């Protein structure tokens, strides 16, 4: 008995590979993919993420210049860092 996780699946359409073709990465040997290709993760919009992170940092700078507490500025900086680091790890995973 094979579990679903052991089933060889086509990397293009995600359907199980036919018997005897499990060693192939995708359909094409005995016919085309029976299903349309799986949707791809949209590429991370680095420019948008950088702009957003810059916005957080600018806000933190304003926070400090108008005399807001350090804790407030730190929270704002953390927001920008989280945004930027999430975008970086997503981009690294896609490359
Ligand atoms: Zn396929």
Number of domains: 2
* Major sheet characteristics: none
**Termini distance?**
36 Å
Structural class: mainly alpha
**Shape from CA axes?**
rod-shaped
- Percent helix range: 40-55%
Number of helices: 2
Beta percentage is under 5%
SSE pattern: HH
Number of strands: 0
CA gyration radius, whole angstroms: 23 Å
Which blocks of ≥5 consecutive residues have pLDDT under 50? none
Provide mean pLDDT, rounded.
90
| Ligands | zinc ion
Give your account of this protein's structure.
The protein is mainly α. The protein has two domains: 1-39, no CATH class; 46-94. 47% of the residues lie in helices and 0% in strands. It contains two helices and no strands. It has helices at 46-65, 70-94. Helix 1 (46-65) runs antiparallel to helix 2 (70-94). The longest helix is centred in the last third of the chain and has 25 residues, at 70-94. The structure holds zinc ion.
Summarize the structure.
It is built from two helices and no strands.
Features of this protein?
95 residues, mainly alpha, 2 domains, 2 helices, rod-shaped, binds zinc ion
SSE diagram, text form:
Elements: H1 46-65, H2 70-94
This protein binds zinc ion.
